[in-house]
Specification:
Oligomer: single chain
Structural class: alpha+beta
Shape: globular
Number of helices: 5
Distance between the termini: 21 Å
Strand content: 35-45%
Helix content: 10-25%
Radius of gyration: 16 Å
Length: 173
């Protein structure tokens, strides 16, 4: 569903190397904006949403959970992952990235420790973002070169009360 939409916007001229094999992705590094680029994230998303989806989910230990938020695809991990010094066994995919679901009702301490600045900060909603990198790259037949942006995000959502979502956004355009 959400991941399948990524197939429409994925870069097409990315040559895959052994280090970029989507089946070898380190989820913690992907969530923390370490190591991977925009094209690497989209390769991963295409692998996860494509014809090898069942194999990908099994290999990563993912079980999809029902979500009342159409913008988040929720998954339970078979083994916890440590991100930002915290452990979780839940992750979510958005249209542009992968985030950890953390058992933290107050997002402020995590945002502060990561240097993430709030763009929305109300009692019932927090949204913060910090740019990690940006560039313009030529892909396939796209003209002019496409803007690529990687940003670290921290936010809360109504359908996951008492939780803070934190992770990386890999966007094109």
């Amino acid at each position: 569903m959400l991941l399948a939409a990524l197939l429409l916007f994925a870069p097409t001229s990315h040559a895959q190397t052994a280090e970029q094999d989507p089946s070898k992705i380190d989820l913690a590094k992907l969530i923390e904006c370490k190591t991977y680029d925009v094209a690497g994230y989209y390769d991963f998303a295409m692998w996860l949403a494509g014809p090898d989806s069942a194999t990908a989910m099994r290999q990563l230990g993912l079980t999809e959970m029902p979500s009342s938020n159409r913008f988040l695809q929720e998954f339970k991990l078979s083994a916890p992952v440590t991100v930002f010094g915290r452990q979780t066994n839940e992750i979510v995919f958005t249209s542009s990235g992968l985030l950890a679901v953390l058992d933290e009702p107050d997002p402020h301490p995590l945002a502060k420790s990561l240097g993430v600045t709030a763009t929305i900060d109300r009692p019932n909603k927090f949204l913060g973002d910090k740019e990690v990198s940006s560039s313009k790259e030529q892909h396939g037949y796209a003209y002019p070169p496409l803007p690529m942006r990687i940003s670290l995000r921290v936010f809360t959502v109504d359908n996951l009360p008492g939780k803070t979502l934190a992770g990386c956004s890999y966007s094109i355009g």
